[in-house]
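Task card 7
Instruction: Convert sequence to structure tokens.
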Amino acid sequence: MVKKAKEDLCCAGIGVITSCCAVESVVSIDERGQMVLPKDLRARAGIKTGDKLAVVSCQSGGKVYLIALVKTDDLASSIKGFLGPALKAIMK
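Output:
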């Protein structure tokens, strides 16, 4: 696996949305707490039936302000490479 340079990481260390980050869709939560990820997003993310996703939340002052879904196969590198630098910028 090729490591990305710090400047190549999506939103790394800047704390704002850049051209690599986007609102993909708006989903609704049903009465059972379930939601549907759009088919085209699942395809682009390589999410298939049976895949496991970790739900990662970030909070400040007791309030959750970010919920991210990360494929468990990519969990360690995703958190370290994306959320770590973004959280450092937010917490400053």
